[in-house]
Amino acid sequence: MAEKLIPIALGLLLLGILANGGCEDSASQQDERLHSANQAAIEAQRQQNQLVAAQSQVLAENSQRITAAADAVLAREHQIRQDLNQQQTRIDTGRADLEKERQLIAQQRHRDPLVAAALQSVGLWLACTTPLLFGFYVLRLMFNQEAEHAELAGFLVSELTSDQPRILPAAAFGPPRIERYASPPPHLPEDAPPDDAPF
């Protein structure tokens, strides 16, 4: 806009000079007019230069502000991407840990019944074989030629077969025994056999 003002101002000055040229002026007056016209043109050029410099400074400041804002936006975007990557890494690690834990739980659920069944089988086997091994040991002692072993075997056999053992508890090798000479329960009247029933 300031560049358009200079040609207009120069044109007006020239028109003024030409309009006054028809009059008879002295050479000093013409010089003064030219000098004042030159001064006016120089002043207009100086004002235009100041205006252009001010506009350039404003543009430079605005450009610096825009560049700083763009850099801040880029830095913020980079930080957000790093945060998202870290969160995604934590999520992936958590998923992997959960998958490992799930697999361990599944293996434990599959293994625990097998271990329990094996322990139950071993316990049942021990419960069944211990009396047999003990009896085998007693029989072996009975057929041993040494007197001490034979006496020990006889004592153990009497303890195992006695109704009231002295050392071993009665329920150690099975349920309590049924009395040998228990009297039979009395017959109720309705359970009595008929008189004509065959023997």
Runs with pLDDT <50, length 5+? 175-182
Which term fits the overall shape?
A: rod-shaped
The helix content is: over 70%
Average pLDDT: 76
The N- and C-terminal alpha carbons lie at a distance of: 148 Å
What is the H-and-E element order? HHH
Rg on CA atoms, Å: 63 Å
Strand content: under 5%
Largest sheet: none
Structure annotation, total helices: 3
Features:
199 residues; mainly alpha; 3 helices
Explain what this protein looks like in three dimensions.
The protein has helices spanning 2-21, 27-142, 147-161. With 199 residues, the protein is mostly helical. The protein has a domain at 1-17 and 30-110. The protein starts with a helix and ends in a 38-residue tail after the last helix. Residues 175-182 have low confidence and may be disordered.
Tell me the layout of helices and strands:
Blueprint: H1 2-21, H2 27-142, H3 147-161
Helix pairs in contact: 1-2, 2-3
What's this, in brief?
This protein is mainly α. 76% of the residues lie in helices and 0% in strands. It has a domain of 98 residues.
